[in-house]
Amino acid sequence: MRNIYEVLKGPLLTEKGTLMKEQDNKVLFKVAVNANKIEIRKAVEEIFKVKVDRVTTMNCMGKRKRMGKHEGKRSDWKKAIVTLKEGEKLDFVEGV
């Protein structure tokens, strides 16, 4: 198993993620591409001291971008939706 801080890249703060957090107690994270659900669960539980009910992951493909005649591609990344158990709470931006 790799370092838990290499598994979690950071939180995804989006409008859709905020709604999911308020309604379903789900939190979005950007994670390492080669991380699996077990590693993500352990990392979240260890770092934030919460109980995780379920982890869902999805691979997001990087978009093709152009700058004039040159074409490039953004890197692929992975998103994790972490469902917390009843009564657990996780806030990234408290007091804002």
What report would you give on this structure?
The protein is α+β, with helices and mostly antiparallel strands and 96 residues long. The chain has one domain (4-84): RRM (RNA recognition motif) domain (Alpha-Beta Plaits), CATH 3.30.70. It has 3 helices and 6 strands, in the order H-E-H-E-H-E-E-E-E. The chain has helices spanning 4-7, 15-24, 37-48, and strands at 8-11, 26-31, 52-60, 64-67, 70-73, 77-84. The strands form 2 sheets. It has a 4-stranded antiparallel β-sheet. A two-stranded antiparallel sheet has the order 4-5. The relative contact order is 0.24. The model has no long low-confidence stretch (mean pLDDT 92).
Question: How are the SSEs placed, and which strands pair?
Answer:
Layout: H1 4-7, E1 8-11, H2 15-24, E2 26-31, H3 37-48, E3 52-60, E4 64-67, E5 70-73, E6 77-84
Antiparallel strand pairs: 1-2, 2-6, 3-6, 4-5
Key descriptive features of the protein:
single chain; 96 residues; alpha+beta; Alpha-Beta Plaits; 4-stranded antiparallel sheet; two-stranded antiparallel sheet; 6 strands; 36% strand
CATH class: Alpha Beta
Helicity level: 25-40%
N- to C-terminal distance? 35 Å
Q: What does the largest sheet look like? A: 4 strands, antiparallel
Strand order of the largest sheet: 1-2-6-3
In CATH, what is the homologous superfamily? RRM (RNA recognition motif) domain
Low-confidence stretches: none
Our Rg estimate from Cα atoms comes to 15 Å
What global shape is seen?
Answer: globular
Content of β-strand: 35-45%
Number of helices: 3
CATH topology: Alpha-Beta Plaits
